[in-house]
Amino acid sequence: MAILLKISVVVLSLSYPFLVYWGLQHYDAQVLLLLLLLFISIRWLVIGNGIAERKTIIITLLSVAIIAAIWGEQLGLKFYPVMMNLGFLILFVSSLYSPPSIIERLARLQDPNLPEKAIAYTRKVTWVWSGFFLLNGSVAAITALWATDKVWMLYNGFIAYILMGCLFAGEWLVRQKVKQH
To answer: How far apart are CA 102 and CA 123, in angstroms?
Structure first.
């Protein structure tokens, strides 16, 4: 049952922009915002195992609620991807200043005895992902503030995932080259 709940949370997270776009066509933004806040709370209970993940989710929850209270429920709904990117940006950058970096931690799951060159590489990759989250969050904010609902959904529900996949694939290819040398 727990694994099914985790899979459901991941699927809902990935489809969030589509659900919001569809929901805004059929329901009041207030109802959707309450569902979002409930979803974020469930996500905190289900997925947020580590302290850093729980902090990211709490910051997102509070930020979305504050944005909605000040600027309206619809903007609060549309700022969820912005706040998730900001949370990941803070998480990744802060790991660079209190090592090991996030990418090094992930790499050590496969190889606990990383050589010094590999540690340096993981720091660079952490910087690259930090840049991605900064850029992606900025574009998400621009689409939330000034774009149509369709453009917001297209970027946050499709283009952002393609860009993330390209970064994953590109880094994997670079890593294979680095490992050879």
So the answer is: 8
